[in-house]
Backbone:
């Protein structure tokens, strides 16, 4: 260990490897959820889990679920890419892309909480 790094605890090693997606020509880092939006992302994911797929025949419920999905995606993406707001998602993205993005957001949220649990055990 050289003098410059002596005594430094490198917390950057706790960050997961970078994972980028390309959506509408924009690269989005889906490897982690910035702490500034963790609770909002968690809240939106929980809200999504309340929608029962069997009840999606109801147009109102289906629209509410779609609105929540778009809010989730735009909240995550616009944190570092402000132009990726809800309107941008409605105008530029198809449902298969949205579904894949939501899955990646959920994975990042699970990793965040796993990291919290692991830190708590140490």
Residues:
């Amino acid at each position: 260990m050289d003098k410059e790094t002596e005594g430094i605890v490198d917390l950057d090693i706790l960050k997961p490897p970078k994972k980028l997606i390309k959506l509408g020509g924009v690269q989005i880092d889906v490897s982690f959820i910035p702490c500034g939006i963790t609770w909002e992302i968690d809240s939106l994911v929980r809200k999504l889990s309340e929608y029962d797929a069997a009840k999606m025949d109801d147009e109102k419920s289906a629209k509410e679920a779609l609105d929540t999905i778009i809010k989730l995606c735009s909240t995550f993406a616009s944190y570092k890419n402000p132009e990726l707001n809800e309107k941008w998602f409605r105008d530029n993205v198809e449902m298969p892309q949205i579904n894949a993005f939501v899955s990646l957001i959920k994975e990042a949220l699970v990793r965040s909480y796993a990291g919290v649990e692991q830190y708590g055990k140490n």
User: Anything to note?
Assistant: The chain has a mean pLDDT of 88. Residues 37-121 form one domain. Helices lie at 38-49, 59-78, 86-92, 95-121. The first strand starts at residue 20 and ends at 23.
